[in-house]
Amino acid sequence: LPRIHFVDTSICVPPDDKADYANVISIMRKHATTIRSTAIRESKECGAPETYSAKRTISAQKYTDNQLSFTYSSPNEQYIVVQDAYYPGWKAYVNGKETKIDPVNITFRGVKLPAGENMQVVMAYQPWTFRMGLIISLVTFGVAVYFIRSKEEIA
Question: Collapsing DSSP states into helix, strand and coil, what is residue 103?
């Protein structure tokens, strides 16, 4: 399978409090013959399984270590699966507007996409821990510079 692919069906499962993924695994087994075209997604907002039309295209895929982007076109809503590990800190943007990323099939990322032509999707790894570390480092650097300059004025 390609790294990014559309699915024909998405099935929602509420998050498992036990974190043993028994519900997801059970549904994956039921859909074993169609698992490549089915996304079993974990979400608090669950409804009936959703099906998507086959009229869709994806192009202009670009990958780096902390970002991927692609363009798609579809007359209807779609659901894509990115076969990279789901991990907190990933953000998804469709034409610049942030959208939700779901854990899919236990380990992958999935995103529901609106209908449209030449829609730009960007997924970027932007963990809050990196930003917090950067802020702490800059503040520490500023304090160190202040103390070094104040010692120079005393001498």
Answer: strand
Q: Torsion-angle region of residue 126: left (phi > 0), alpha (psi -120 to 50) or beta?
A: beta
Structure token pair of residue 37: 């075209």
pLDDT at 155: 61
Percentage of the chain exceeding pLDDT 70: 96
Q: Contacts from 59-68 at CB under 8 Å and sequence distance 24+?
A: 61/3, 61/4, 63/3, 65/125, 66/124, 66/125, 67/122, 67/123, 67/124, 67/125, 68/3, 68/4, 68/122, 68/123
Which parts of the chain register pLDDT below 50?
A: none
Helix (H, G, I), strand (E, B) or coil at 19: coil
Q: Are 71 and 58 in contact (CB under 8 A)?
A: yes
Residue with tokens 């990933």: 90
Does pTM top 0.90 for this prediction?
no
